[in-house]
Amino acid sequence: MAEFICLFGKDSASIVIKQPKKSPLFLRMIVLVFAMVCGLYICSVCLKQFSLQSSQLVPNPVDSHSSHVITRIHYPKPQTFNRAECGHNPVRFFAILSMQRSGSGWFETLLNSHDNVSSNGEIFSVMDRRKNVSSIVETLDRETLDRVYNLDWFTSASKNECSAAIGFKWMLNQGLLANHVEIVDYFNRRGVSAIFLFRRNPLRRMVSLLANSYDRYAKLLNGTHKSHVHSPEEADALSRYKPVINSTSLIHDLQETESLAAKALEYFNTTRHMVVLYEDLITNPTKLKQVQEFLSIPVKDLSSRQVKIHRGDLSDHIKNWEDVNKTLNGTEYEKFLRADY
């Protein structure tokens, strides 16, 4: 646009250069661009808040034995009921990864005694679900995992509306290790924390396995099989059976158990996880506090009605104790012969 030059005086000694007035169209363009920038910023903030509505990352307050230092909180929106006033309460996702007869049933009843925890048992103990673990994880349908974490899986443990932590038990031999790549990916994407529960003394677990397997057919309690009992009388009745342990394959069997646990920890190393030993839960009261802190739930006194079946020295519960004692003495597994709690 041309500039105006004005001359004043006869000799034109004074020269004033006068800028032209800016076009109203130009000013309107500036306002429009500014409005668009502001609009884009507001939209980005809104989208960010919307994406965090169902899942948020928060600092992890305790040592999770993992390279990940953040945990994820969720705001599930169940299809089968309305969370009502609890809809704004965050929920943590977890899974108890363990082996049969490692104390996971007792441990789960302890967790479920918390007002805000729902642990739904072994959802993959049913063979049909176990066969379809891979497809379930890959397709992320609502039949199993998604239903559990969406609060749409109903069991006697369900707290529904005001659950602060939701999970289940998953045994290592229920498709967990066979499909570990897909499951680890699912856990990391959905923010599922893993709690590994093992026994320090696998020899005691072996006794429990054999005795429980025998009772499936013997049904020692008035013709009824019970994996867990709630009275000292029932515990004493079941503990009267003393299994015979194969001393020839004993060391190999103990090695296999240790190898299985080590493999699980290796496979799930990238997840947020913690390791809990059954014996520590019995002897160390702070362990349950650590578990609750790991789940970021209010710490409370937890209790269970279950009664331990095999109490006292192992020599009281193994029929061929002399053979077992001779086999393990002088080996790295000799320590398992002694009482550990």
TrEMBL record:
<keyword id="KW-1133">Transmembrane helix</keyword>
<dbReference type="Pfam" id="PF00685">
    <property type="entry name" value="Sulfotransfer_1"/>
</dbReference>
<keyword id="KW-0808">Transferase</keyword>
<feature type="domain" description="Sulfotransferase">
    <location>
        <begin position="96"/>
        <end position="323"/>
    </location>
</feature>
<dbReference type="InterPro" id="IPR000863">
    <property type="entry name" value="Sulfotransferase_dom"/>
</dbReference>
<dbReference type="InterPro" id="IPR052796">
    <property type="entry name" value="Nod_factor_sulfotransferase"/>
</dbReference>
<protein>
    <recommendedName>
        <fullName>Sulfotransferase</fullName>
        <ecNumber>2.8.2.-</ecNumber>
    </recommendedName>
</protein>
<feature type="transmembrane region" description="Helical">
    <location>
        <begin position="25"/>
        <end position="42"/>
    </location>
</feature>
<keyword id="KW-0812">Transmembrane</keyword>
<dbReference type="InterPro" id="IPR027417">
    <property type="entry name" value="P-loop_NTPase"/>
</dbReference>
<keyword id="KW-0472">Membrane</keyword>
<comment type="similarity">
    <text>Belongs to the sulfotransferase 1 family.</text>
</comment>
